Amino acid sequence: MKKLIFIINIVIVLGGIWPTLGQNVSIEKESSDYVQLLIKKAQTKIDTNWIGALEDYLKAEQIAIRHSQNGNLISIYRDLQNLHMEKTLNYGEGLHYTLEGLDISTKERDSLSIIYFNRRAGIIYDEIESHLEARKYYLAAKGVNDLYGDKQESIVIAMDLASSYYYEKQYKKQIETILDIIESLETSGKTDSLDSHDAILIINWINISFAYSMLDDYSRSEDYVYKALDKIERTGLDSYKLFAMSLLSQTYNRKKDWVNSVRFGDSALIYSKSNANLNILDGDFYFAFCESLSELGRKNEAISYMKSYSLKMDSLYNKNQKIKANNIEALNTIKKRLSKVEFERNTALLVTEKVKSRNLMVIILLCITVLGLLVFRYKFKKNKFAKELLEVKQKQSNKDLNQKNREITSKILQYTDSQTTLISISNEIRKIEETNFDDAPAKSTLRRLRLSIDHQSKNKSIWKELEKTFEDIHPIFYTKLNSIHPDLTRGERLLCAYLKINLNTKEIAKITGKTGKSVEVMRTRLRKKLGISNDSTINLYAYINNI
């Protein structure tokens, strides 16, 4: 009897110890300190080896998620969204990590991080031209900051809002916002370093000058830009001269003062060439400057500048496309490698479980009474583990599908933006062609350049590649859709595809070249064809996603 009790005690003790065997090996590499070490290691690699940094961040994320290390996750998501915005140029990934960081910061009630992630979300939405959504996040950041009381952060958020109004050409609202910023800066005095305070004033004077110029209020526009130039001269902040000279060239062009437009345009170009780090002269500047040159009879120079700018933009576009393609390939390689590591980790855990089961059987032979209890306990844990593993796989599958949808959405919007830019450049070249000048070789060069741009803008190969990518992600979507609704037109099937990847009305309108109202009409007709009545509670997005 005493021997039996001794054996039972051994089983109980081993039953308590064995679950920890196999975990001791990895406990050190699952700790918060180890995650922080991975973060620091990644931060040192960002500038020299961002792919290696990304791999370290993703490893750290996996561990931090497993152990609910929310403080570490906030740091990881801060760095990951910056890395994707600056290195991979992948706004979809950047937005994903920004929103993940915002969600965790909100749960942790981390005010500074909530402000930070709201601002970053707003900036990304402005970049992808979802300006209304951007302002929602800016205002959320402002609401939290008003409670926190950081005046300098309040000015930065207000500048973000003003920029959002500028992107949407709401110049009156932009002016109202900037006037509040200027008043705050002028009444509060220099609360920060001299350069920072004066630099913010200069930036806002230049921005409000541009807004007044766009509203044809040239008197106020000139007042503010010359005010900025005076401050630049007095403070030595020469890096802002290029902004002011570019703005003056465009303003005088709008006033049809060709001489002053060319004078400041020449100065801007000279300053830009002597300061290689200040390459901010955009298409608006070149179009205005070249028009002024043409009006003064310097048509050959105008053609040369336009051609140079077009070639530079084309080269930049090709370079960015190549970078993005390489980055996507690198990102996929890293994810596969991390999936393999995770698989090996799970396999090691399963092997440990098998070893434990085999050892248990030895003791079970010594104690039949304990056998039933141990078998029951083992099966219960095994079933629970299998169920949890299945749930994790399903969540990961859904996450991967959402990620792929975000990536193809980003590609479609980027392709639409590039097409719009090419058409705009072609139209501006056509305007120059239509001006009265007798230089036949120049006209011929312009025509060849325009035809080349037109050909590129009508190139459908990229669009076909995007359609193929959609079919790879959702291989049976069209088959199921056609079997359920065989009478849909090609346009209606395409609209279903846009809804499948969760594009909103504004994004669909942008891609198709239609108005938002037209897209709403298309959606109403599609509901009718799909047999969804207007008073039905069925959501169109949910219906399409279930196909």
Could you outline the blueprint of secondary structure elements for this entry?
Layout: H1 2-17, H2 24-27, H3 32-45, H4 50-66, H5 70-88, H6 91-108, H7 111-127, H8 131-148, H9 151-167, H10 171-188, H11 194-214, H12 218-235, H13 241-254, H14 258-274, H15 283-295, H16 299-366, H17 368-434, H18 440-457, H19 461-473, H20 477-484, H21 490-500, H22 505-512, H23 516-529, H24 540-545
Helix pairs in contact: 3-4, 3-5, 4-5, 4-16, 5-6, 6-7, 6-17, 7-8, 7-9, 8-9, 9-10, 10-11, 11-12, 11-13, 12-13, 13-14, 13-15, 14-15, 15-16, 16-17, 17-18, 17-19, 22-23
Core attributes:
547 residues, Arc Repressor Mutant, subunit A, 83% helix
Explain what you see:
Helix content is 83%, strand content 0%. It is mostly helical and 547 residues long. The chain has a domain of 74 residues: Arc Repressor Mutant, subunit A (Orthogonal Bundle), CATH 1.10.10. α15 runs antiparallel to α16. The longest helix has 68 residues. It is globular, with a radius of gyration of 31 Å. The termini are far apart.
Q: pLDDT under 50 segments (min length 5)?
A: 1-8, 10-27, 347-352
As an assembly, this protein is single chain
Order of helices and strands: HHHHHHHHHHHHHHHHHHHHHHHH
**Architecture of the domain at 474-547 in CATH?**
Orthogonal Bundle
Structural class assignment = mainly alpha
Rg from Cα: 31 Å
Beta-strand content estimate: under 5%
Tally of contiguous helical segments? 24
Report the principal-axis shape.
globular
What integer is the average pLDDT?
A: 80
What CATH calls the topology of the domain at 474-547 is: Arc Repressor Mutant, subunit A
Number of strands: 0
Biggest pleated-sheet summary: none
Ends apart, CA distance between termini? 66 Å
**Level of helix content?**
over 70%
